[in-house]
Automatic annotation (TrEMBL):
Domain VOC: 5-134
Family note: Belongs to the methylmalonyl-CoA epimerase family.
Keyword hit for Isomerase: no
Listed name of the protein: Methylmalonyl-CoA epimerase
Originating species: Rhizorhabdus histidinilytica
Listed NCBIfam families: metmalonyl_epim
Taxonomic path: Bacteria, Pseudomonadati, Pseudomonadota, Alphaproteobacteria, Sphingomonadales
Gene3D superfamilies named among the record's database cross-references: 2,3-Dihydroxybiphenyl 1,2-Dioxygenase, domain 1
Classification via PANTHER family: METHYLMALONYL-COA EPIMERASE (PTHR43048), METHYLMALONYL-COA EPIMERASE, MITOCHONDRIAL (PTHR43048:SF3)
């Protein structure tokens, strides 16, 4: 597998509204997308555009949110995951499994509307890694 484009850095936050104010007023972000709920992933999401990538703000949605444990340990929030693009999600899953890395669940639709999966941080040098199929040109995500 060839390492693809960095799509986004996930940042967990207890309050997307407060984080939006931070990225706007302190970081000078000019393009901050409208937040939206993603119940299937247990998070509320807001994309902050940078010139070459995106920051993905994620706030827990519901008590069983996958980021609840992270926020319990880091109540002010923090860097949560890094997401790389790949051309073929199923080939990428087979690649990581072949390397003995723990893929967390089956590929599912992520915030950009393409298939994603996560690889366990303990098998990825301490970094929770999201793998995302590259959006196709002409399809809006
Ligand atoms: C917006 C949708 C989507 C997108 O399209 O972009 C998203 O990004 S959704 C983002 C949220 N979803 C997920 O994170 C799903 C995958 N995550 C998980 O399955 C779990 O969070 C986890 C990675 C298995 C961790 O589970 P948890 O119960 O929170 O913690 P543990 O105590 O079991 O952790 C085990 C181990 O891993 C360390 N850890 C946990 N989270 C992270 C992290 N974000 N970065 C680095 N390390 C992390 C934790 O400290 C434990 O370490 P040890 O104690 O040393 O074993
Ligand atoms: Co993400």
């Amino acid at each position: 597998m060839k390492l693809g484009r960095l799509n986004h850095v996930g940042v967990a936050t207890p309050s997307i509204e407060k984080s939006i104010a931070f990225y706007r007023d302190v970081m000078g972000a000019e393009v901050i997308r409208e937040p939206f709920d993603l119940p299937a992933q247990g998070v509320k999401v807001c994309f902050v555009d940078t010139p070459n990538s995106q920051i993905e703000l994620i706030e827990p949605l519901g008590e069983s949110s996958p980021i609840a444990g992270f926020l319990a340990k880091n109540p002010d929030g923090g860097q949560h995951h890094i997401c790389y693009e790949v051309p073929d999600i199923h080939a990428a899953k087979a690649w990581f499994e072949g390397k003995g890395a723990r893929v967390l669940g089956e590929p599912r639709i992520g915030a950009h509307g393409t298939l994603i999966f996560f690889v366990h941080p303990r098998d990825m040098g301490g970094v929770l890694t999201e793998i995302m199929e590259t959006p196709r040109p002409g399809v809006s995500h």
